[in-house]
């Protein structure tokens, strides 16, 4: 097992971190033998199994890709094995407010002794370097495997940008046509819960309609127990608004291409770098997002869309109206976003990560 890698983290077809890890494993397996300790099942038994796999592994190399609670549980054991058993490991840091969950001596010690510590945003990378004096931080943004759009003009089968001729005049023409419709189509696609800003968005949308504007708003996502049941009923009673159920992962881009503007009004305190923003960029959707955590870094105000103060329904209403009235600007932002998505192409992001591991002597 000297050259095999032990991977610890959730991996599945659902759930942000689990989907991300599933894609990473696909690429990792092309270069190395990998044993997976899947922590998608959050039972006590699964957590104990993850701890024991670190304590008694015969693998030389370990990758741990978990969010806040997983870090608090597993990082101290990584440090222990580093000191006593000589393993080498990489920490993939997932989720929002990561710094706050790492402020204890054992977690900081684990980070300092890692070969690589990844961060999903550049601001988090800077925080880790400055606050914990780390010199092993690698920026690794969230990523998606980006297939062709329905027009086939932007991404090729590998998720890379299509050559000239596939993109350019035709794409700009499509962007212009998309926003010529009389009724602008807004899209929400995330968990249906108060913490994701559903009530704020609905209230803001109703104000837009009351002021004489015509638009539609579709809600997609699983209904969370944290959603006030009256909100769902209110959606169905609001003209132009509709709840359309959950969106299968393989249908997300298609759904996005049938809309004009993506709205991400999250108020969730632990919001990280949601992959749905990458998908919205790839689909060429201008994005309205709250200023929660890393959103202003991912969505540059005026270039990729617009940022509003989280929970501020008045600001959100103003931005919805702005989109309805500024179709030419929407076309420009749409073109920007198709190009921006290439930064988050899984193949590019993961290959950079693997190259960092190779520099550190890993068998990848």
Query: Which percent range describes the beta-strand content?
Result: 15-25%
User: Compute the gyration radius: what is it?
Assistant: 22 Å
Number of domains: 2
The tally of beta strands, per DSSP, is 12
Proportion of helical residues: 40-55%
Q: What would the CATH topology of the largest domain be?
A: Rossmann fold
Largest sheet: 6 strands, parallel
Structural class: alpha/beta
The helix count comes to 15
Report, as a whole number of angstroms, the end-to-end distance. Answer: 14 Å
Spans with pLDDT under 50 lasting ≥5 residues? 149-170
The dominant shape is: elongated
SSE order, as H and E?
Answer: EHEHEHEHHEHEHEHEHEHEHEHEHHH
CATH architecture classification name of the largest domain:
3-Layer(aba) Sandwich
CATH class of the largest domain: Alpha Beta
CATH superfamily of the largest domain: Glycogen Phosphorylase B
Strand arrangement in the largest pleated sheet: 2-1-3-4-5-6
Mean pLDDT: 90
Describe the structure concisely.
By secondary structure, this protein is α/β, with parallel strands linked by helices. Helix content is 44%, strand content 15%. The protein has helices at 16-28, 44-56, 68-85, 98-102, 105-112, 122-132, 169-178, 198-210, 229-237, 252-257, 275-282, 295-298, 313-325, 327-340, 346-359, and strands spanning 5-9, 34-38, 61-66, 88-93, 116-119, 137-139, 184-189, 215-220, 241-243, 261-264, 287-290, 305-308.
